[in-house]
């Protein structure tokens, strides 16, 4: 199979010791040592104060990365279809609802209920960006980043549209936390386009192949294992370094995603 | 420039909901106007009525897939066993290859009922969840396509779309895009959502639960009935299907960008999703013969949808909601109603809304409240959801 092609630019990330693309690029490229520091998640400037108050940490995390990506790409936020990928979704809200349901009265807060949907971050993005463009939210456990990137590239190749891709995850809350250990909040975002643009960093070719494979060795492997969205780090490191790269993500069920990165 | 939509065939279909287990029972319920909503048992409080599927708990998953055991995957298994679906997928797998068939599923809550039970199973005063609770294989959204992919022996990409109540419809659009991008040659597409405390209590907290069976489009409609369903379609290129198979002719989506849980009052997002679906199918509004509404039975949704539909179609196209039969099956509803649309096309049936004595006099669209027989060539199916997500599908006979 020839693979799915797209161009990638407009890079953004937010994670421990990785506060934004500009400051993280030399760290990711290996020129500056990584130093642990908790991520600082800003309130979303794109939302009106009433909406902003309703946003949780994980929504703020996703919106920070997504806003950073469109700014870096130099495109209007309302011009892009979006793919939001997350394993845990809003684990704090889901956990709070589960706690409420286990309590004797079993009542659920209406605001928590509508914020519990997996597309909550995408919904707030649409409100803040004044976007009426199509949007999907996907949830694929440990494969959320890899399969989200693949589907965003599929949209670019199959529908010929530019796509904002955002992968984000934060730790689960309460008794759920050990069910899917997530060590820290992490988000990344990028803009994928059919043709190169001034913001393009590289061309990507993606292939979904049968059979597992070990992940390519990466100095970021340990951090990548701490959060499903941080599994993007080998790609971000390759883009920061600027050379050609062949990357592989083993998927959960006897399959893998291979990505060829070609600078352009 | 957007590429045009290449029609795809519904090579095989199956569905299980409160109105029937399998296509024959679903078809009979539609023709005989036998709804599946029943008074709720205490476990479904505060709902007064629910669209519960009987027999789900006695379904056994194959032993090698036992870790996926939860109500959502049991309902999925129940549907996979109907209508020759397993054999149809096996035949496609032989012909196209297991790696060339994707699995694209919509769900909003996956196996969260299992998590709710795990919380309740904890001994008094205990914080940790029981050791036998398998989060990844039940609660997690990815559990559904992983189960379906393993059960069907497929090896192509798997994906969970979770865009609230458009999930099942959006799965069709994403699968079509995968095929068009060359990622796969066919896809098992569908949606499964099951009754759980979270959604029933959640809609209760929003004061959206109807005191009786839901009556979409009625002048005195008073809310939704929560239901559950599993619906699957084997989506292939037309040359890989029977010549008379119903086709997916187009699909379109949009976002409201307006509010998390209230639709845009003028239905702008709904209009743009329907228009995008018509454009993808290269059809004019006048070429649609029936609209299967999202029609949840809430005051706000149905009024918004009437404005959006009448804006595009006037009162020229009969429309109805089939949620009076099934309840609102949430993330499964888009897939279930795509299957219903296919049956309506095959049978020339406009299934009038159940239990509606008087259509809302404010409505401009032609709302059917009795079954009508008419030759149908093309049907539009709408889905809208929390987060301002909208998706419309156009299904029809081959041109």
UniProtKB/TrEMBL annotation, chain A:
It comes from the Bacteria. GO terms for molecular function: acyltransferase activity. This is 3-oxoacyl-ACP synthase. InterPro entries: Ketoacyl_synth_N (IPR014030), Thiolase-like (IPR016039). Residues 37-203 form the Beta-ketoacyl synthase-like N-terminal domain.
From TrEMBL, chain B:
Keywords: Transferase. One of its GO terms (molecular function) is 3-oxoacyl-[acyl-carrier-protein] synthase activity. Residues 5-397 form the Ketosynthase family 3 (KS3) domain. Pfam families: ketoacyl-synt, Ketoacyl-synt_C. GO terms for biological process: fatty acid biosynthetic process. It comes from the Bacteria. One of its GO terms (cellular component) is cytosol. InterPro entries: Beta-ketoacyl_synthase, Ketoacyl_synth_AS, Ketoacyl_synth_C, Ketoacyl_synth_N, PKS_Beta-ketoAc_synthase_dom, Thiolase-like. PANTHER family: BETA-KETOACYL SYNTHASE, POLYKETIDE SYNTHASE-RELATED. Belongs to the thiolase-like superfamily. Beta-ketoacyl-ACP synthases family. This is Beta-ketoacyl-ACP synthase.
